[in-house]
Amino acid sequence: MNDDVDEPLRLPPRPVPPPRPSLPVAAAIVPVVGAVVLWQLTGSPSALWFAALGPLMAAASFVDAVRSSRRSRRRARGKAATDLAQLAVDLEARHDDERRRAWHATPDVAGYADDPTEVWRVVPGRADVIVVGRGEGRSSVRLDGEAETAEARELRGRARMLAEMPITVPLSAGIAVAGPPVWAAAVVRALVLQVCLAHPPGQVRLIGGLSAPLRGGCGDAAVAGGGLALPHADATRGAAVLIGNGDRPIPADVEVPIVQVAEGAPPPPRCAAVLTLDGAGQARLDHAGQSRRVRVEALSHTQAARLAVVLSERAATLGQRVDGAVALAELPVAPSEGVASLASTVGISAGEPVALDLVGDGPHAVVIGVTGSGKSELLTSWIVGMCRGRSPHEVSFLLVDFKGGRTFDALAPLPHVTGVLTDLDETRAVRAVDSLRAEIRHRERVLEAHGARDIAEAVGKLSRLVIVVDEYAALVAARPELHELFADIAARGRALGMHLILASQRAAGAFRDGVLANAPLRIALRVTDAADSRTVIGDDDAVRLPGGPAARGTALVRRAADNGPQTVRIARCGDDTLAALLAESVGVESARRPWLPPLPDHVSVPEVRGRAFESDRAGSGILLGIADEPEHQRQRVIALTEGSAGFAVVGGAGSGRTTVLRAVAAQAARSMWVPADLERAWDMLLGLDTVPPGTVVLVDDADAIAGRFPADYAAAWTATLERTAREARGRGIALVVSAPRVAGPVGRVIDLLPARAILPLPSRADHVAAGGESADFIADSRPGRGRWGRTLVQFATPGETVAAQTAGTPTSRTESAAPETAGRRRRPSIEAEDERTAPRWHPTARGLSGLILPAGARSDAVAAALEADGFAVRALEDAAASAPRSPDSGPGERGGAVTDGTVLIGSPEAWLAQWRLLAEARARGEVVIDAGCAAEYRALTGRRDLPPYAAPGARRAWAVLPDTDVRRVTVPA
């Protein structure tokens, strides 16, 4: 055998035939010529006998040359045959060596049995294929040279192919074995054992129940490992190998299907290679479009059982066995080293306890796993493990469950747990997480005060705080700004003693680089996306973890110093373990909570004042409510300080806008409430120029008031309100305006106010339109809870004492009560109410009084009322008919028809037609125009300014006297 197996063999060259011998003509002629010359010289006839020697010598030479040529040809043919025979020997040796190397590279079950050292040995190419039998394969031996003879051609043909070679197919191709049930079962059994001999548990795993081929029968098998204790049946990692029957579909997560099908039945679509058994030890292999004959290997159940025992013993020796379920109570408690360590025993691997240390392995951890993989059990066991043997002054926990479950409810009574937060109360959960910003600053101040660089140098001053978030992706999806907070904790947590355990179903989109870079402790339970597995543990193994209930809690743990992940079976924390821990914690002082309680649902002005004095922050001004600042770990009182220009209150229906204004009015030394009554609202707002400094002007539902005014009055009213807002600080007054939205003319007024309280609004879009931040919107918020800037505030209510005050008659403190309190008073009469805004009109004694009313029955009623009061009343048409036609006649020349003190009643059209009488009334008397004739007011009076607002349909009218301001009056009826 040649040492260099890659050196090609060469066919012996074809023997070169010797040249044909030529006739020695010259040798025959020369003696004749010599004899003739000698005869002539001597004259002796005897000399001619020498001429006969030439031909004789030539013939002899020719015969000798022919004999020599024949010998040479025989020697050449002999050497060629010898060389070809040696080449055949060398070729066979090469083939034997090639066959040996091929079976060494990819042995079958017999090969592993002959050389047990090859079991689970890493050989290039072995892990990717499976040997399905023996057959003829193409040889790699090269045979150079020309095949000139039949023997050489036959030898070249033998060199191309090699018998008894291992016939392999890709491991992932899938194999279907069809044939007699018992024989097919034995073949499947051999294939499965070959896979298990080539790959250790963890590289491959047998999933589902081991089918009948491993039990020696036909039909379905029992539970996993039935009859064959293969360690691969308990593996939790690696390629999934399914041994089954062809009458059932192959699961999608199976990577290596090996199935037995009935004779004549079609193979499953996932099986690219089909072995059809058609004789003792013989089969036809159909794969990749080719068909070939192979001799298959079969194993009895007894042989397979012996090999299974060998593999189980080898797995136990090499630590390849996979652990079963274990309870946390069965594991030893990790030794406590104060704040220097957070070691916790969480499970077992190869029968040995596995401890995780957030201090040594962390400082932070990332956990991924799909629903049902055991993620919640892992978190619970880990937390309880860290609590065992440690006091709340050594470690405390903030637990956040953002998947709507009850994962941490059982842990809430532990004194180590500062709070359990869920997405069922998203606002409270996010508030507590926001408080961690203040916790960071608190810990920095403590370390600075004690001259310590990290928590290890401030023993007894700080406990380690572990923040555990289940469904971290859902938390940051709801509040994207928390990405920065967790990245900050991840960066500074080691020194401050703050640790993160962030769990999510998927890694994609959840964990950013700032968190992952500082979380070297990675744990992956089963996932369905290989990208998530690679992100967390660096390979795809988490996808191959089994998903059945029996494998729940199987995880891959990778620390910063690990070359690869370690398979761990997470221990389950039973109720008895938790009960024992709670019993040990009775009477133990609870851990310091890093946040204050939530804002109260209701707070009154006296309660706010009490909090202000308790915190020594009473200050001055009008108290508005309590502000929640979790990022500073405080709740402070907010107030409208003296000298403030005021603020706006924006909120939806029932949000508490009016209550906020009532609380302000109750505390103001001097306040003026602009009422909802349009006439009074008009008069009061136009009188703001005379309001003394220190007055608080309150306008509730300003947009509703403006919307009820006619267009010209609304523009004037809002312009006055806008001017007041602009001048409020300079005049020393404060303006408080409420509205359900920031839009239109009132929106310009709100924009001029320096502060804004945003109460609950129907939607996030409304909240943003009101000037708030989208992230600050809280759906279904309670009344009185809103934002002051971006700070959450519970605004105060007036309280019982204040309510009693505002319900009574307005005092110097409150010049006009709020509508809802005013409504509680007994209204004396409509006339008394009217007298306050529009006094009853009485005609003057001098000049002509013109009363302009809309045409209709009401004119007669008004005329009758005036006549009953003793006034002379005439219809305008009658007076015009009896008046003299001379334009120069005076009032005394009317024949007594129209005298001073007479009241002429007519419609706007009639008065405009009698322009002389209208001019006389405007110049010498009084013109009274009903509010229903507002459209003709300017034409009738000749004035361009707006009269005081008068409500139409309420007997309101405008009284116009020469050179005086227009008055609002009430027409008698």
TrEMBL record:
<feature type="region of interest" description="Disordered">
    <location>
        <begin position="800"/>
        <end position="847"/>
    </location>
</feature>
<feature type="transmembrane region" description="Helical">
    <location>
        <begin position="167"/>
        <end position="192"/>
    </location>
</feature>
<keyword id="KW-0067">ATP-binding</keyword>
<dbReference type="InterPro" id="IPR027417">
    <property type="entry name" value="P-loop_NTPase"/>
</dbReference>
<keyword id="KW-0547">Nucleotide-binding</keyword>
<feature type="compositionally biased region" description="Polar residues">
    <location>
        <begin position="803"/>
        <end position="815"/>
    </location>
</feature>
<feature type="transmembrane region" description="Helical">
    <location>
        <begin position="47"/>
        <end position="66"/>
    </location>
</feature>
<feature type="binding site">
    <location>
        <begin position="369"/>
        <end position="376"/>
    </location>
    <ligand>
        <name>ATP</name>
    </ligand>
</feature>
<keyword id="KW-1133">Transmembrane helix</keyword>
<dbReference type="InterPro" id="IPR002543">
    <property type="entry name" value="FtsK_dom"/>
</dbReference>
<dbReference type="GO" id="GO:0005524">
    <property type="term" value="F:ATP binding"/>
</dbReference>
<protein>
    <recommendedName>
        <fullName>FtsK domain-containing protein</fullName>
    </recommendedName>
</protein>
<feature type="compositionally biased region" description="Pro residues">
    <location>
        <begin position="10"/>
        <end position="21"/>
    </location>
</feature>
<dbReference type="GO" id="GO:0003677">
    <property type="term" value="F:DNA binding"/>
</dbReference>
<dbReference type="InterPro" id="IPR050206">
    <property type="entry name" value="FtsK/SpoIIIE/SftA"/>
</dbReference>
<feature type="region of interest" description="Disordered">
    <location>
        <begin position="1"/>
        <end position="21"/>
    </location>
</feature>
<keyword id="KW-0472">Membrane</keyword>
<dbReference type="InterPro" id="IPR003593">
    <property type="entry name" value="AAA+_ATPase"/>
</dbReference>
<keyword id="KW-0812">Transmembrane</keyword>
<feature type="domain" description="FtsK">
    <location>
        <begin position="351"/>
        <end position="534"/>
    </location>
</feature>
<dbReference type="Pfam" id="PF01580">
    <property type="entry name" value="FtsK_SpoIIIE"/>
</dbReference>
<feature type="transmembrane region" description="Helical">
    <location>
        <begin position="21"/>
        <end position="41"/>
    </location>
</feature>
